[in-house]
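Archive maintenance. Older records in this collection stored only the sequence; we are now back-filling the structure field for every entry so that each record is complete. The fields below show one back-filled record exactly as it appears after the update. Entries are processed alphabetically, and Nif11 domain-containing protein is next in the queue.

ARCHIVE ENTRY
Title: Nif11 domain-containing protein
Organism field: Vreelandella maris
Length field: 66
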Amino acid sequence: MSMINQLQDVKTKDFAKHCYESSSVDKLRDAAEGSPDQAEMEHWGLTEGQWEEAIVAALADHEAKE
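Back-filled structure field:
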């Protein structure tokens, strides 16, 4: 999880870890290509930028291990 570990914001890092552990590569790719999930942003207390950063980091870490 090298990309996730580089995240500075605690909420963003926590959400990225959650995404990495609970989502498939395909699901993360779909999320990265779509709009930020408003329900997840509200639940985790994230801005759109934080949500996008977490998704990209989780996806990058998944792809790095493939």
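Update note: The two ends are 13 Å apart (CA to CA). The chain is about 80% helix and 0% strand.
Entry marked complete.
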